[in-house]
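hi! just following up on the protien thing from before. the input was this:
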Amino acid sequence: MATYFRICPRIWYEPWDTDMRYLALYLLTNDRRETEGLYRITKRAMLADLQWSANRFSRAWDALLEAGFMDYDDEANVVFIRNALKYQQPENPNQRKHAVAVVEQLPQTHLFNDLLYAAERYSKPLAKVLVEAFPNGSGTLAEPLANRSETVTETVAKPPAPTPTPEEHASEEPFGFADFYKVYPRKQGKAAAVRAFEKLTMQARDLATTAARRMGQQQKRSGYDLKFIPYPATWLNQRRWEEWQDGKVPPGWEASSDGEPDFIHPMDANSIASLGYDPFEKTGEDDA
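and the predicted 3d structure came back as:
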């Protein structure tokens, strides 16, 4: 276990309530955590540490899962903090050797594949040693690792694969797209959204996903009509996530003072103009 962990300041700007933020900080700093973000911890142990009621814990826990902060394997009692490696990677061979030893002690879990995926993105040296240590997904590791390890091995040890054709390229989803599309409230035009998302930098992808999650939560609270939400490709190409940064909520999204949804009526031309885009714009995007 590391003696300290790095925590991104963005945790204070996430649209989370106090319990969600407290639970996230606990998962990032408790004495069972490992640097790579994959470690074993039972819900009973978490309840004992936090001294919360089961209902209070469940509300914050389910909300963090929905927000994509972490994943949990209930059968193995293993948690994976999805962006742990983004902010802190094993810095030398000894630390990477320790990471292998930690994985060896874990029960079987499908979350090992997620660790490999994160290592491929944020720590190629760690991905390499994990694949070398567990080339076939044997021992305590998840069975699907056999296929995943081949992919990582190609990335870290083999020459680059041939450039895919446009058709093949269009069928692939860039890293992070699944997270974005899961929380974006309007599920239409997926292929075009993939192409738009792929053009973004990693930082922009993170910002867009965070904003899409906030927008989806606000849509549920306000009752905002889905037909006035642009297709995801349009939203991405126009960098509409910037409207949701720094805690902002775009005009028309707020709930009215009487508690009724304050979504825009389709015949209200002034309200439509305030959106800054044509909700009925023909984009040529295909339905998902």
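Residues 167-275 form one domain.
The radius of gyration is 21 Å.
cheers
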